[in-house]
Amino acid sequence: MxxxxxxxxxxxxxxxxxxxxxxxxxxxxxxxxxxxxEPDLRRGFSDPEVTPEWLYEAARINYSYAGSLxxxxxxxxxxxxxxxxxxxxxxxxENDENETEDDTYDGNDNDKKDNQAPQQPPSxxxxxxxxxxxxxxxxxxxxxxxxxxxxxxxxxKASSWSxxxxxxxxxxxTARRAPLSSFPSLDFSxxxxxxxxxxxxxxxxxxxxxxxxxxxxxxxVELDGWAGGLSGSAKDVDCTIRSTFSxxxxxxxxxxxxxxGKPFPSSSPPLPPLNSWGDYYALRNIPPTSPAALLxxxxxxxxxxxxxxxxxxxxxxxxxxxxxxxxxxxxEKELNFLDMFKELFLLFSPSNLALNxxxxxxxxxxxxxxxxxxxxxxxxxxxxxxxxxxxxxxNDSLDPNFDCGGKPDVVFAMNAGIYAYESWRFVVEYLExxxxxxxxxxxxxxxxxxxxxxxGRKCRxxxxxxxxxxxxxxxxxxxxxxxxxxxxxYVFNEQDME
Length: 498
Fold this sequence. Notes:
Elements: E1 31-32, E2 35-36, H1 53-84, H2 89-97, E3 141-142, E4 150-151, H3 154-159, H4 161-175, H5 177-180, H6 189-192, H7 202-210, H8 232-235, H9 245-249, H10 277-283, H11 293-309, H12 311-319, E5 324-328, H13 342-348, E6 355-361, E7 373-375, E8 386-391, E9 410-413, H14 424-434, E10 437-442, H15 445-452, H16 456-461, E11 464-465, E12 488-492
Parallel strand pairs: 5-6, 5-9, 6-8, 9-10
Antiparallel strand pairs: 1-2, 3-4, 7-8, 10-12, 11-12
Helix pairs in contact: 1-2, 11-13
GO molecular function, one term: zinc ion binding
Protein name: MYND-type domain-containing protein
Keywords: Metal-binding, Zinc, Zinc-finger
């Protein structure tokens, strides 16, 4: 399990081996030419020149096997349904599609997301408490070496040999908590990234209540979660209802809004580089006390991703005088504030780049009157910009080249967690076959690296910190890794300008 990833998740010590003519239980030496290979195989942690290629490809191969086994299981289930000649075969198929590969609940409803329903409703999920990695009982005892996971006792720690394999790597992850928690331009960030926020949702809930934002406007799903559209707050969301920036943010002090949502003058030159929240706040005249970044990380993450990784696609679109066609997959929480993405249109308007944003969601997450999808009216900076919502499973029930506004220039997924749901394999398969640029974000470095490994060495090496991550430390209930919404980028099929 050190060198490969497995779609099936296990609890406690598990031996996984391959039948061969050698003794598979022997200790494997992960040192070659005096270079030690740690589980994440990151540049700087090991030497890529001597790392066997199969180590880099192990995750991709395992994920492919998991997809084949899933397809086989679906076929066998359909055969069983046909033989039973039952009237509820459609329901059975639907349940199969909605199975998750990992029913572990880590306390963050959006960490495991895609366009499929969760395996169980939130009411059936465990209480949000820090849990022992080994036995899943409540615990507040951290691993003394890495401070990355919780144990309830010394015996559980001694039994957790699987963590022993990862402990040196996780120590490196936790050591990066301080720089990841640094947002010098935001006055509220020392509070929202402090230790209490890493162990419970309650401090953030209290913070929003103190600002009179809790469960208001675009903040309505910020804490109670989305959970595949089944949470109480999400059920009340009607994504077709339009909101102005003032109505969505609900700030009591209008100065906190700054110039967000206001068009730039038509003669404005291209924007200067935006490398941090400080740059953006200065550009939009937002005071450092404003908590706007706690929501704006969604459009600003897309802006950063397109600016950093999609230069060839942007230049081609401008040369052909056509909008950049972007498919946003795995959409859940974003449905609550589609109007917020108009700020993305405004940021690109000085460079004369228009965007077609197509959000791909499950049909049951849309109001009954528009289950097949809808398009926002043209009230964006130019009529070339558009926001469209379509329902279905990307590259399965939906053909990306025909059902989502045309062939994409970029596929974008925020807080993806590719290993969490089987339906992500359809997205991965499309990226592999089409060569289309895929830009993904994830919550923590460990999850991001594992998911990036599905794209091979180049994708793995692309993992980087997002400067527009949410300035909020999120709890991970069996781990203590630095975790931020849209925290890390990784990229499939990145192209260089020639």
